[in-house]
Amino acid sequence: MLWLALLTLLLALSAWSEPLDGRTLYRENCERCHGMSGAGDGPDGKNLIPPPRDFGQAFKYGDTQTAIVKTITNGIPRTGMAAYGKVLEEAEIKALASHVRVLRKQEKN
Ligand code: HEC
């Protein structure tokens, strides 16, 4: 019966860890505007004014983890940037903010 307990544990762990994967969440929610690498070149961002942020450029609302969590949670009024606090869990937004910071570092190089 041990194998069954282990299998259940494994399944539970994989189901639990998936939504906290910032990269996957980014692909599902952000890539269409901000682009795969975060250069702001996603297909749905092309006609937006202002355009989606290129994560390699200066951030208007701060680029610390806390500031980015706030931006994602509250959105940016009168722009395409929606408030994700209504649709995502706090832990998911934190994972997304971390991923934005990873992309930001890569884009800056
Ligand atoms: C419909 C298009 C769209 C989607 C989808 C979108 N964004 Fe944005 N985002 C924008 C636009 C447009 C801006 C720029 C607003 C501005 O210039 O004031 C922006 C700005 C931002 C900023 C602001 C950086 C700064 O200047 O302070 C961050 C961070 C950000 N987005 C992260 C995300 C994340 C993470 C997701 C996915 C959960 C996401 N965005 C989804 C359009 C989008």
Which tags fit this structure?
mainly alpha, 109 residues, 52% helix, binds heme C, Cytochrome Bc1 Complex, Chain D, domain 2
Fold and architecture overview:
This protein is mainly alpha-helical and 109 residues long. The protein has a single domain (21-108), classed as Cytochrome c-like domain (Cytochrome Bc1 Complex, Chain D, domain 2), CATH 1.10.760. It is built from five helices and no strands. The longest helix has 19 residues, at 90-108. The radius of gyration is 16 Å and the shape is elongated. The termini are far apart. Bound molecules: heme C. The site of heme C has 25 residues, from helix 3, helix 4 and helix 5.
Hetero groups in this structure are: heme C
- CATH H-tier superfamily: Cytochrome c-like domain
**CA-based gyration radius:** 16 Å
Beta strand count:
0
**Strand content bin:** under 5%
Counting helices, strands and paired strands, the structural category is mainly alpha
Helix percent band: 40-55%
CATH class: Mainly Alpha
Tell me the series of helices and strands, N- to C-terminal.
HHHHH
Which spans of ≥5 residues are poorly predicted at pLDDT below 50? none
- What is the CA–CA distance across the termini? 52 Å
Q: What is the number of independent domains?
A: 1
The CATH topology corresponds to Cytochrome Bc1 Complex, Chain D, domain 2
What coarse outline follows from CA principal-axis ratios? elongated
Question: Mind describing the biggest β-sheet?
Answer: none
CATH architecture: Orthogonal Bundle
Put simply, the count of helices is 5
Mean pLDDT: 92
